[in-house]
Write a structure and sequence with these properties.
Order of helices and strands: HEEHHEHEHEHEHEEHE
Radius of gyration: 18 Å
Protein name: 3726_t:CDS:1
Number of helices: 8
Strand content: 15-25%
Organism: Scutellospora calospora
Largest sheet: 4 strands, parallel
Length: 235
């Protein structure tokens, strides 16, 4: 299984870059952007060992979260669980974070609304109204670690056969090869507040957004050369 995912990552290729080491004595909430048509980067880098997540971040166990409804589908549920995925419900998030040091979660913040805006070279994020994961971090006093993905759409369209063939590039079952680069930024320390006010949430959200744009401005000319627009927050 590990070899398959490494081949998968090499195909696009998919890479994972970290800016700093993470303290394994703390818990982290990773925010992932953008969602894309299918969160190929999130799956490859955080649900598998294709790019050696456990070696890059020793002592950190990260659970990729998805909709609770996905766990109602027989066999698919077992497949997700085998890869360490969990429900994005509040109770599930809290249960994981309470397991002890290093236990962390990754949330694809923009959700389905953001995926509908996914287009090559466009980085439109649904973020301003997404305060749930910020509230979760503040209430539990966790170190809130954020992650930003700069990626081109990797060609996963429906129907699937509109991809790359063995002897051609327009027809076949293989997706188009597009680089996907995931950058894990610096952690944001969060002070524990049992019942945070809206002002508390917005204060932390501003720090999050500022760091998000810092990552974008640092790496965009290297990993998003063919962008047709800048990083934009939409609702």
């Amino acid at each position: 299984k590990a070899a398959f995912w490494k081949w998968y990552a090499d195909y696009f290729p998919i890479t994972l870059i970290k800016e700093v080491d993470l303290d394994p004595s703390k818990n982290y909430i990773f925010g992932y952007h953008p969602h894309g048509v299918i969160s190929v980067g999130a799956w490859t880098n955080f649900a598998t060992e294709a790019n050696d997540f456990s070696k890059k971040f020793p002592g950190i166990t990260c659970r990729l979260l998805t909709l609770a409804s996905n766990f109602n589908i027989p066999l698919y549920r077992e497949y997700l669980m085998a890869h360490g995925c969990a429900s994005v419900s509040r109770q599930s998030c809290e249960n994981i974070l309470k397991k002890g040091p290093g236990n962390s979660i990754l949330i694809v913040v923009g959700g389905a609304g953001e995926s509908l805006n996914a287009r090559p070279g466009v980085y439109d994020l649904v973020l301003k109204r997404r305060l749930g994961f910020i509230k979760l971090a503040i209430r539990h006093g966790k170190v809130w670690k954020f992650q930003k993905t700069l990626q081109k759409l990797s060609g996963w369209t429906m129907p699937l056969f509109h991809g790359r063939g063995v002897f051609n590039y327009n027809l076949g079952i293989l997706p188009h090869r597009r680089p996907i680069t995931t950058i894990v930024g610096r952690p944001i320390e969060v002070t524990k507040i049992e019942n945070p006010t809206e002002a508390d949430l917005l204060e932390v959200q501003k720090k999050y957004i500022d760091e998000l744009f810092n990552i974008w401005n640092t790496y965009k000319d290297k990993y998003a050369k063919n962008r047709v627009s800048e990083l934009t927050l939409i609702e």
